[in-house]
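Reply to dn_fold:

You asked what the input looked like. This is it:
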Amino acid sequence: METQRPPTLTIPISCCPKKAPCPTCGKLGRRKDVLNRQIRSIAYHQVVYLDVTYGEYRARCHCCSTFRTMPTSVEFKARYDNKVRQAVLDRILEDGMSVERVIQSIHRDFLLDLSDGFVYDCLLHQAKRLDMAEHRRWVLEHFRGTLCVDELHLGRYALLLATDPLNDLAVAFALVASNDKDHMRRFLKNLKTWGLEPEVVVTDGSDLYPAVLAELWPSARHQLCVFHVLKDLHKLVLDALRRFRRGLERRGNRGRKRRRGRPSGGRKPRHRSTYKEKSAFIFSHRFLIVRRRDQMSRQERIDLNTMLNDLPELRPLRQFVDALQRLFAENQGEATAWRRHQRLTTDRDFLAVPELVKAVKKLGPEKFAKMIAFLGSAACRQMRTNNHVERINRKLRHEEKARYKWRSRRTIVRFMVLLLDRYWEHEKATRSRWLDETPPIELARESPKTVPRPRVA
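and this is what came back:
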């Protein structure tokens, strides 16, 4: 059985006028020769060639002696046109493919065999064409005063990332050898040199930020991520629940044990749950001890009351969680938050539980002032967590994992620059489309219909 050969398509292109401008200065040169070459393009399940007829010209300037013309869709001395390069970049940056998967996809869809070197050359060529200064100017123009900062570990490197959560924009990044204060100070100092003056800086509870932020932006409010704070405090609450539950389970092991080989008598019917059953119920519903009451269903409220009745030692834990939710409520003032903080840190019921003592120590006055910075002004109230930069970090880690061989500093930086450039270009196109579109004119309900509706006979 003979295999069917794929169809071959040849597209003629001519770019050889009698006079052509110099690519450097634009001065016209006269044609001295006409040349021809074939360049590979792509089409779905077809073999496509561009039959390019171009000219060689004698220059009339001091830039060069001769020069040649080429179509705008083909780079100088290239074997493939720009469609091939764009297909490679789309599969890497948009579809998240590795180099091997890109080569297989191009061969399957367009019957074109590429090499690893050409794929890396496409990335390098695109990175050289970028204008990062223009991107920085555009980000500064649209910056809205809130900055989220976080770090991400990529192998033996650390990625420092800053984002604008209100505009959903990535501001800048830096790939450093170690995650320490010197590298963080250098990264944030570069942002200040570019002209970035944030009103609010949102970070997690790391020790890298307080001294650096106070040095670079003393007037900016430092907001600790409320999500990270509650996460650490809830972990201590769950540790206390685990200790109480295990004590309840050990109580179920008490009593007289039956000797080995002795027949067991008939058990009397019981009407109450055993200690082990209560312990198992608390373990399967342990998440209710830290869940918000306004997010509970009716059945979950019943299960929570059952847990508190079976094990009364859990009541201080639930009261502590309720006090935390009131402590970080948005509809309050700073004075109210400080009064609630004072009552929470001096409550004797909370100080009787060792895990809650550790939790209270994490709510020191100096640290608590940064936790409630979002109550200070309207600009701060717009963002009180750094979940935005955390989401972007997870996306970057997912994108970078597909390229597990890209572990050198050069390849990681190149990939990050191209990815952010693609993201910024998408945002620019979206915002310019919003500006060009005019809102539709809404007619009042009392206004008559200008166009009569045709009647159907």
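The chain has four domains: 1-78, 80-129, 132-225+385-435, 226-252+279-382.
Hope that clears it up.
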